[in-house]
Structures are given as structure tokens and as C-alpha cells.
Design brief:
This protein has helices at 28-59, 65-76, 81-91, 95-119, 123-155, 161-187, 192-214, 227-230, 235-243, 246-264, 269-277, 281-307, 318-342, 348-373, 382-415, 418-440, and strands at 309-310, 313-314. With 469 residues, the protein is mainly alpha-helical.
């Protein structure tokens, strides 16, 4: 094959592991189409985790614990990600899982909005419906989000992966931002009818755009030699086999530890700024905006470095950026420890900007590494590997906020000094990032050399490399 097809780019094999007929590589247009699907996913998720959260707490005057538990449930359900990835491995196609997951996710979003409108009249039945809705949201994210990453891992050449990961994640963040902004305006003045209309509109747009973006994107499954023998049949045996792969197991541990450190500071940074530095709610919100701006800068830096060269030399490998990002995150958290000890004289905004940039750099490099490693090991296990790492990330995010806030409360009880209490927690998080850097240093680099254009498999066949593992 040669030429392009629906924005799929050039046809050279992108790493189908030299196991049979090569699949066409994705060009930037195809990556952008998957990015739009991620944006739709983000739009429905932010409606559920942010808008419905606010309505329950403010308009309905319900305890904040209720939406907190519902959001935690949607993370717990994402432990199903390995099973969802296994499904795409077994079928040999990702598109049905992406579209099916989006349908479940969108339905959960609409049901969640309906449940909130019922809470004012019948609280118990409204909560029961909300539980079902958030379980659906978690399941939909698991199926759709995992399969998008699997498709990227299979089809994006090695040289483009950092840029592709950045594009897809930025588009998902854009989905968050656009939905929060436009949906917020459409909800004013608030009414239950408006809430249902906004939820239904977001859901309909998400499903429609996803279906259009998937049209002729993946193509028919390849009739590759030996597929009948390679197709996984039993989920637990497949998951156990993946866990026994040294690279997959080490990377799972890295994802969990690094994302635990990443998420543990998320819910305590603004309270820290208010308690120790006297920031107003508006100022602390602006501080959060500075952090997210830093994350954007870090992501763009790694994307540029991943596809650029200076005087013919690479601008650092993915492992380099992952390790450096973890170390820089630890350094920035050490700065927050100093901020807690020194107080208002500390340049907090610059410190938070550095933290965001370091977090963005390590996370996007880790995602690009995840896309590469998913294609290594035995054939037809990409979805199971990606699902395992997605489950580790979801578990870390679910525990991170809980552990971070619980440790800060415990430290305040034991130390009786708010600033020192926060400093202790930030110090523990910095130590987690140091451990993450050590784990990231063990990530094996891609075996094939990267040139200006990828002409063959980006990764050597893993069969002979894992025979002794």
C-alpha cells in the first residue's frame, strides 16, 4: 500500500511487530480524529464530575461527601479497564469498543443529570439512580478511553508518539474547558429542565462526533498469519501472562506510584495557599490555573523534543523526560516544603508553575512510553496491557486525593501547625516522585533507531527478547 487514506498518513509499518501484514500508520489527521473522541469523552466526564457535583452541593444543599463518593465510584469501576482492553484484543478491533463505550458513557451522563433532578423530590431513588449512572460513566470511560490508547499504540509510529499523546490529551482538556464554559452559560438561570437539556445535548454531540470520527478510520481487521493461535481466549490467563512480563509489571508499578504522587497534591494545594499564604478563593483558583498552564508547557516541551533535533542530535529520549520530569516534580514539591516553612515570602506562583511543567513533562512522556510498551510482548495483548496501566492510574487517582487530604488532616492533628503539616505531606509526595524516577529509569528504550521518517517497525520483534524473561 502507499499514499494516504482518510488522513491516515503514509503507509510504512508503525510497529505491528513484524507478525504479519502491516497495518497503515496514522498521520496527524487520524491522530486529531482520535483527539476529538477524547475531547468528547472529557466533555461528558466534566459534566458528571464537575457540574453535577456543584448542583448537588449548592442547589440541593446535599453533603459534599455524596458527589465525592460517586466520583470515587467511577474511578473504582475503571479497574475493569484490563477486561475492556482484553475485549479489543480478542475481537482484533478497537472501534466497536470506542463507540460502545461512548454510548454507555453518554447514557450515564444523561442518567446522572436525571438522577440529580429526582433528588429534590425523592432523595433515596435519586441517589440509587446516580449510583447506576456513575457506574456507567466509569465503565464507558474504561471501554472508550482504553481502546483509543490501544489504537494509538498500534498505529502511531515511534517518532510521533510524544506529539500524538500531547495532541490527544490537549484536545481532551479542551473538551473539559469548552463544556465547562459553554455548559455553564447554558445552565444560567439554573433549572432542572436546563440541566437535562444540557446533559442530553452534550451526550448527543459526543456520540455523533465519535461515530463520525471512527468512520473508515481503523479499517477491516487484518487477516494475519497465526492470528487464530495468538487470539486470547481466557481473560484471567491473559492478564496473568501480561503481569508476568517484566516490562509490563515494572511499568504498572511506575504508573501507580507516579500517579499517586501526582494526584495526592491536587486537592491540598489550594487549601495550602489559603491557609498559609492567605490567598482568597479567587486567588487560589488563579493559582490552579497557573499550575495547569505549567502542565501545558511541560507537555508541549516534550512533544517538541520528541520530534525535534538540534545539529542532528535527539533532544532527549522518552525515558530521559520521564525520569527528569519526576525529579523536577520532587524538586518543585521540595520547594512547597520550603514555602510551608518560610511562609508568604516564598515565590509560590513560580513554584507552582514549575510543579505543573514538571508534571506535564513526566506524564506525557510516560503516556508515549505506554503507547510503545503496549505493543511489546506476545501478540494481541496490547489492550490488556493498556487496560492494566489504565486501571493502575485510576486506582492511584482514586486513592491520591483521599490519601493527600487524610494525611494533611492527620499531620495537623499531630503537629498543631498548619504550615508544617502541609510541608510534611508535600515532603512525602516528593519522596514518591523520587521513587517514581528510580522506577522510570528502568524503562527500556525503543530498540529500533529513529530517523527522520519511520520506514519499518519502530520496535524489534519481542519474541526473541522475552524468551529468557
Amino acid at each position: 500500500m502507499s499514499g494516504t487514506d482518510s488522513g491516515q498518513g503514509k503507509v510504512p509499518d508503525d510497529g505491528t511487530h513484524a507478525r504479519g501484514t502491516p497495518e497503515r500508520s496514522f498521520g496527524w489527521l487520524a491522530v486529531a480524529r482520535l483527539g476529538l473522541i477524547q475531547a468528547c469523552l472529557g466533555a461528558v466526564v466534566v459534566l458528571a464530575t464537575s457540574t453535577l457535583n456543584r448542583v448537588m452541593v449548592v442547589e440541593l444543599a446535599l453533603p459534599a461527601l455524596l458527589p465525592g463518593m460517586l466520583v470515587a465510584m467511577h474511578y473504582v469501576v475503571q479497574l475493569l479497564r484490563p477486561r475492556m482492553g482484553f475485549g479489543s484484543d480478542r475481537s482484533g478491533r478497537c472501534s466497536p469498543w470506542i463507540l460502545g463505550g461512548m454510548l454507555v458513557l453518554a447514557s450515564g451522563g444523561v442518567l446522572g443529570a436525571f438522577a440529580v433532578t429526582q433528588m429534590d423530590q425523592a432523595l433515596a431513588s435519586g441517589i440509587a439512580l446516580a449510583v447506576i449512572a456513575f457506574l456507567m460513566i466509569g465503565a464507558g470511560v474504561s471501554a472508550s478511553g482504553t481502546s483509543v490508547l490501544v489504537l494509538l499504540a498500534k498505529r502511531v509510529p515511534e517518532r510521533r508518539r510524544a506529539g500524538a499523546a500531547t495532541m490527544v490529551w490537549l484536545m481532551m482538556i479542551a473538551g473539559f474547558a469548552v463544556t465547562a464554559g459553554v455548559g455553564g452559560k447554558m445552565l444560567d438561570p439554573y433549572s432542572e429542565t436546563r440541566l437535562l437539556a444540557v446533559a442530553a445535548s452534550v451526550a448527543a454531540i459526543a456520540v455523533t462526533v465519535t461515530a463520525l470520527m471512527l468512520l473508515r478510520l481503523e479499517g477491516a481487521p487484518n487477516g494475519r498469519t497465526g492470528d487464530a493461535q495468538q487470539t486470547p481466549r481466557d481473560f484471567m490467563r491473559t492478564l496473568t501472562a501480561v503481569w508476568r512480563e517484566p516490562e509490563a509489571r515494572q511499568f504498572t508499578i511506575f504508573v501507580f506510584v507516579s500517579m499517586l504522587a501526582f494526584s495526592a497534591q491536587d486537592l491540598i494545594l489550594e487549601p495550602f495557599a489559603g491557609s498559609v499564604f492567605g490567598f482568597t478563593p479567587g486567588e487560589s483558583t488563579q493559582l490552579s490555573g497557573i499550575q495547569h498552564s505549567g502542565i501545558l508547557i511541560g507537555m508541549l516541551l516534550v512533544a517538541a523534543a520528541g520530534s525535534g533535533r538540534i545539529f542532528g542530535r535527539k533532544l532527549g529520549s522518552l525515558r530521559f523526560w520521564t525520569v527528569s520530569g519526576c525529579i523536577a516534580s520532587a524538586f518543585a514539591l521540595a520547594g512547597l516544603v520550603a514555602a510551608g516553612l518560610i511562609g508568604p515570602g516564598w515565590p509560590l506562583s513560580a513554584n507552582v508553575m514549575l510543579l505543573g511543567a514538571a508534571n506535564g513533562a513526566f506524564s506525557i512522556a510516560a503516556i508515549a512510553s505506554m503507547m510503545r510498551l503496549a505493543s511489546e510482548g506476545a501478540a494481541r495483548r496490547e489492550g490488556t496491557r493498556m487496560g492494566l496501566w489504565g486501571a493502575a492510574q485510576a486506582l492511584a487517582f482514586g486513592l491520591g486525593g483521599l490519601i493527600g487530604t487524610a494525611l494533611s488532616d492527620l499531620a495537623r492533628l499531630l503537629v498543631n501547625d498548619t504550615a508544617i503539616a502541609y510541608a510534611i505531606v508535600f515532603g512525602l509526595e516528593a519522596m514518591l516522585f523520587i521513587v517514581s524516577a528510580r522506577l522510570a529509569s528502568r524503562i527500556r528504550e525503543a530498540q529500533a533507531p529513529e530517523g527522520p521518517e519511520v520506514r519499518g517497525p519502530a520496535i524489534k520483534p519481542i519474541k526473541q527478547e522475552t524468551a529468557h524473561a
